[in-house]
User: Fold Response regulator transcription factor from Streptomyces kunmingensis.
Amino acid sequence: MGQPLRAVLGEDQPIVREGIMAILGRAGIDVVAAVDNAVDLVRVAEEHRPDVVITDIRMPPALEADGLLAVRRIRAVRPDTAVIVLSQFLEASYALDLVGDDPRGVGYLLKEKVASPQILIDAVERVMARDSALDPDVISALLGRKRPEDDPLAALTPKERQVLALMAEGHSNTGISEQLFVSVAAVERHVTGIFLKLGLSQTASGQHRRVAAVLRYLGQ
Assistant:
């Protein structure tokens, strides 16, 4: 049997922190440190070198985007560290800042989703597999933003919009086919059509590059 995953947790609300620790513990994930501020989060991540860092975005000392800034510092030193940030509010800009040009091992969830333990555990599994795990509500907000009348999104079919949303969340073609109950070949055709209509480079066809490309487009 392999060693359990090791996690570091940043959350300033004691009840929420204990709840997340309990969820992770039941899933066999070892929380090696749990702190209530971003300064300590960076420190314990450097000390313990965890597999995954899970943190709230708004936390002390400034109670702004301190958690987000902390995980960016952590990944700057150890890029292979998987991270999941939790937000009380739907802030698409935070997700875009977190992902940047490399969505591998990155997750962004609304904190309310933690009430469903399996969602958090699924996100941990995805970021540990070097995939991304972006909250569907965040992607829906990006898709629903007011855009120019001539925006290419208007040319997408309903099925293509579904595929685009799942692609942006970080799902592979196989994962999308399972979600939509269609063949992988059908998904590939939709993806090709989406890239052509949005004017995205076909060189971004790799899983991680295409997520970054789609998110950059949606974030414009």
User: Anything to note?
Assistant: The first strand starts at residue 6 and ends at 10. The chain is about 50% helix and 15% strand.
